[in-house]
């Protein structure tokens, strides 16, 4: 191994060590009651519903849940008949996955292990499906894409729920406000929301890459950060605003903070390197950022008469999804 390769490997190990420590701490408060009561909810949550539809029929499928967290989706997929291999860099998360599986009666269908997502101990072409929750943006997209493509069958697909760096207003808030003045910071120091460029790098290893925005989540996250869902009025306002933008302004859906990604048919040889005018893959701060701000403010006023009581758009943020 060359000196440069040694340095890259050392950096990877250091990052994985920090991430493991961060998520060991972040999930340490979860109780048996949490592991039994928290469920995937496709009937109420558009993001969950989209993911379930893309995963398809799971009976008899070999599924890799990479970056499994506390095992919420591992248990769901096992309960639908899949044989699940769950991996995470965090020992605490893997222990919680095993415990959740036991409490929910699917421990025989889940094999959980501590493992690096870019150096997995599985044979090539082993899995029918790969699933991931907020994992691509934590990793080197090229290395991870290559590894996911390797372990998938030629006709396999990978389904991910990821955060999204397309919205310049949210990225400004993340970079300049979170962690200051009492505004909570949920992310680790080594992660950044998934940019277009990094998604393109990941997608090089698949014939098809599709992105969906099943719900518009913008004000939802501002509410989470600034008001903590404590005001019914604010909950109604932000829920109505997000729903209205998704329904009536579909060209703005790409600025949601959440996206669902489906990659199909892994390639033996990756596509050419993506080229973009914007190398960071983040929507520029000029006209698009202004448009988002302007339309969002107008939407708040226009949709007041349509508001209905209830929860904010999307869903309450789960610990596994608290990635900024």
- Order of strands across the biggest sheet? 3-2-1-4-5-7-6
> What best-fitting shape do the alpha-carbon axes yield?
globular
Helix fraction?
40-55%
Stated plainly, the CATH topology is called Rossmann fold
Structural class: alpha/beta
Q: For the residues shown, what is the average pLDDT?
A: 84
Q: Measure the end-to-end span.
A: 35 Å
CATH homologous superfamily heading: Vaccinia Virus protein VP39
Q: Main beta sheet: strand number and arrangement? A: 7 strands, mixed
Written description of the protein model:
- By secondary structure, the chain is an alpha/beta fold.
- It has one domain (15-321): 3-Layer(aba) Sandwich (Rossmann fold).
- Helices cover 40% and strands 16% of the residues.
- It contains eleven helices and seven strands.
- It has helices at residues 3-26, 32-37, 46-55, 72-79, 91-103, 141-151, 168-176, 196-203, 219-226, 232-248, 287-302, and strands at 62-66, 83-88, 110-114, 127-133, 152-163, 206-212, 258-266.
- α5 links the parallel β2 (83-88) and β3.
- The longest helix has 24 residues, at 3-26.
- 41% of the residues are buried.
- Mean pLDDT is 84; it is low at 1-9, 275-287 and 301-322.
């Amino acid at each position: 191994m060359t000196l440069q390769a040694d340095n890259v490997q050392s950096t990877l190990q250091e990052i994985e060590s920090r991430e493991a420590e961060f998520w060991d701490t972040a999930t340490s408060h979860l109780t048996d009651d949490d592991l039994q009561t928290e469920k995937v909810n496709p009937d109420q949550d558009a993001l969950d519903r989209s993911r379930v539809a893309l995963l398809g029929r799971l009976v008899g499928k070999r599924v890799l849940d990479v970056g499994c967290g506390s095992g919420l989706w591992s248990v769901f997929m096992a309960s639908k008949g899949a044989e699940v291999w769950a991996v995470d860099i965090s020992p605490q998360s893997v222990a919680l996955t095993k415990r959740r599986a036991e409490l929910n009666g699917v421990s025989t269908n889940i094999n959980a292990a501590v493992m690096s997502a870019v150096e997995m101990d599985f044979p090539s072409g082993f899995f029918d499906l790969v699933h991931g929750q907020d994992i691509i943006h934590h990793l080197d997209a090229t290395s991870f894409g290559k590894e996911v493509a390797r372990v998938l069958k030629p006709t396999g697909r990978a389904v991910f729920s990821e955060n999204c760096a397309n919205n310049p207003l949210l990225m400004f808030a993340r970079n300049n406000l979170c962690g200051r003045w009492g505004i909570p910071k949920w992310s680790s120091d080594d992660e950044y929301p998934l940019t277009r460029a990094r998604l393109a790098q990941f997608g090089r290893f698949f014939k098809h890459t599709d992105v969906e925005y099943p719900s518009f989540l913008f004000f939802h996250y501002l509410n989470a950060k600034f008001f903590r869902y404590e005001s019914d009025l604010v909950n109604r306002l932000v829920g109505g605003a997000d729903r209205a933008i998704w329904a009536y302004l579909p060209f703005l859906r790409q600025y949601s903070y959440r996206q669902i990604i489906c990659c199909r048919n892994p390639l033996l040889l990756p596509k050419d390197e993506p080229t973009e005018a914007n190398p960071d893959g983040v929507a520029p701060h000029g006209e698009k950022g202004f448009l988002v701000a302007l339309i969002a403010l107008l939407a708040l006023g226009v949709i007041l008469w349509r508001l209905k009581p209830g929860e904010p758009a999307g869903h309450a943020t789960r610990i596994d999804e608290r990635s900024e």
